[in-house]
Design goal:
The chain is of the alpha+beta class and 385 residues long. It has nine helices and 21 strands. The protein starts with a strand and ends in an 11-residue tail after the last strand.
Length: 385
């Protein structure tokens, strides 16, 4: 005899990207989405949510029916802890529906697992549930990301122009409004702009000089003329979708080495762009990126502690997926999955050296059947005056 099954995704939608994606409704309290088939064969999406959120959820959430935990109070009553109560009600709802096995995604907390176990319901985890489905963005998601990227670029432009238009002191330190221009001041200016644009401020990357030789160094201290400054901004906006953009700016004279690095990065980025399309393994995209930087005389790999200071290399993958999280599948790296239409990915080759600092240029792309669409509009050069 076939055992009755259901799918369950639960958590706090404002924090759980998979649950938010499934219901397209944000709330800061625990909720649970049950997907099952009713006795008459009708598929149903049942949302269990806090009672004061039911009205909004009925108007806005992607659910066929909206209930609250009190509607499925078990024999022993509900806990005063909201998360435990939601888990108890979810287990009771499934029990009343005759569900014997529930398939859950990787984000389900042990609070829900515990309640399901106590109700005698078997739990199995599908590691792909809510992952592969989120990759192929629909038109609404792409519109949200397109807007997020446009706003992100506004903030990146502000940071680059702030550096480019500063005045160099005799010792090379950049000055702005009679004070040394620091990574912290640039970051603060970017955060004010992000906040004005409706995004959430964060500790962005503004990595000047040698600090940029570490690809994820956030950066501190004074900025000097002639050195590269990596500015990488990746905010979340009201839609809960992210933008992500990186540019590198150099104030004043650009050295031959920095020009050579920059040309190699742009060549690698263009090579990757030409390779991207649905059906291509992400690893193939990364392979052409690596080949491009090597053709230009640079290396691939993370340097060791004893590596020479003049060693310059690409140290990370070509890119990553983007959506409700700034880093999500697919990874555009060796062993990455086959790209699908609707994937939204970054292409962000970079070169890094202990002495030279770093150069990185990043845009966001929508993968199509025949290629990709670049959502970026900013200039890619090192001079921003």
């Amino acid at each position: 005899m076939t055992r009755k099954r259901a799918l369950l995704t639960a958590g706090i939608p404002n924090a759980n990207a998979t649950l938010f994606w499934m219901i397209r409704f944000g709330v800061g309290d625990p909720a649970a989405l049950i997907q099952w088939t009713l006795d008459d064969g009708t598929p149903e999406r049942l949302l269990i949510i806090r009672d004061i959120e039911m009205g909004r959820a009925r108007r806005n959430a992607k659910a066929d029916r909206v209930v609250c935990p009190a509607d499925f109070t078990p024999e022993g009553g509900l806990s005063g802890d909201m998360e435990i109560a939601t888990a108890q009600a979810t287990a009771e709802c499934l029990r009343r529906g005759g569900i014997e096995i529930v398939t859950v995604d990787r984000t389900l907390s042990m609070v829900f697992v515990d309640a399901l176990n106590k109700a005698g319901i078997e739990v199995e985890c599908d590691l792909d549930l809510g992952i592969s489905g989120r990759r192929s963005k629909d038109s609404q998601e792409i519109a949200w990301i397109r807007k997020a990227q446009r706003l992100t670029e506004d903030a990146v432009r502000l940071g680059c122009e702030l550096v480019a238009n500063a005045t160099a002191r005799t010792d090379g330190v950049l000055m702005h409004e009679n004070e040394p221009l620091t990574a912290e001041r640039v970051r603060s200016a970017i955060n004010v702009r992000v906040l004005e644009l409706g995004g959430i401020p964060a500790h962005w990357i503004v990595a000047p000089g040698a600090q940029g030789g570490d690809c994820h160094e956030h950066g501190t201290g004074e900025i000097r003329t002639g050195e590269p400054v990596i500015i990488d901004v990746y905010p979340v906006f009201e839609s809960r979708y992210c933008g992500d953009c990186t540019r590198t700016v150099v104030h004043g004279e650009i050295s031959p080495l920095l020009r050579k690095m920059h040309e190699a990065v742009l060549d690698a980025k263009k090579s990757a762009e030409k390779t991207v399309r649905a059906g291509i393994p992400a690893g193939d995209v990364h392979a052409v990126t690596v080949d491009a930087v090597k053709r230009r005389g640079f290396e691939y790999g993370i340097p060791g502690d004893d590596t020479a200071d003049d060693y310059i290399s690409l140290q990370h993958g070509t890119g990553h997926g983007l959506g409700l999280s700034v880093h999500e599948p697919p990874q555009v790296n060796f062993n990455g999955p086959v790209l699908v239409a609707g994937d939204v990915i970054s292409i962000e080759p970079g070169l890094y050296g202990k002495a030279s600092g770093g150069i990185r240029v990043e845009d966001i792309y929508v993968v199509t059947e025949t290629g990709c669409e670049n959502l970026g509009t900013l200039p890619q050069g090192l001079s921003w005056r």
